[in-house]
């Protein structure tokens, strides 16, 4: 299993515009083959900070996700909203293994 964890920031004045775009890409991604979990969470202490949590069956599923049309749309849309300080980490684990 592949686990992806990370954070990103968005310009505070664009948070409300980002939320429906994030919901749209999350919904489309959750329907992809190989997606176990995909979500964003807004930080309760810093509303401009978002946390990323993903689980995938394997690298092939994650790579297909990266090439999807909805991801291309998300990347283009977020750039216009002051998206910055992206930090993403990828971990490989056995499905039953705690990380």
Strand content: 25-35%
What strand line-up does the widest sheet have?
A: 2-3-1-4
Give the uncertain stretches in residue-range form.
Answer: none
CATH topology: Alpha-Beta Plaits
Query: How many individual domains?
Result: 1
Question: How many DSSP-defined strands?
Answer: 4
Structural class: alpha+beta
Distance between the termini: 11 Å
Biggest beta sheet attributes: 4 strands, antiparallel
What string gives the helices and strands in order?
A: EHEEHHE
Present the secondary structure layout.
Blueprint: E1 2-9, H1 15-30, E2 35-42, E3 49-56, H2 59-66, H3 69-79, E4 84-92
Antiparallel strand pairs: 1-3, 1-4, 2-3
Helix pairs in contact: 1-3
Description:
With 99 residues, the protein is of the alpha+beta class. The protein has a single domain, classed as Alpha-Beta Plaits (2-Layer Sandwich). It contains 3 helices and 4 strands. The protein has a 4-stranded antiparallel beta sheet, covered by helices on one side. β2 (35-42) and β3 (49-56) form a beta hairpin. α1 (15-30) runs antiparallel to α3. The termini are close together. The model has no long low-confidence stretch (mean pLDDT 94).
């Amino acid at each position: 299993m592949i686990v992806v964890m990370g954070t990103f920031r968005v310009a505070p004045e664009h948070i409300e515009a980002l939320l429906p775009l994030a919901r749209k890409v999350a919904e489309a991604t959750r329907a992809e083959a190989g997606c176990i979990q995909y979500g964003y969470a807004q930080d309760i202490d810093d509303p401009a900070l978002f946390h990323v949590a993903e689980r995938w069956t394997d690298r092939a599923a994650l790579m297909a996700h990266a090439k999807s049309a909805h991801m291309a749309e998300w990347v283009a849309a977020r750039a216009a909203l002051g998206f910055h300080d992206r930090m993403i980490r990828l971990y490989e684990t056995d499905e039953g293994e705690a990380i």
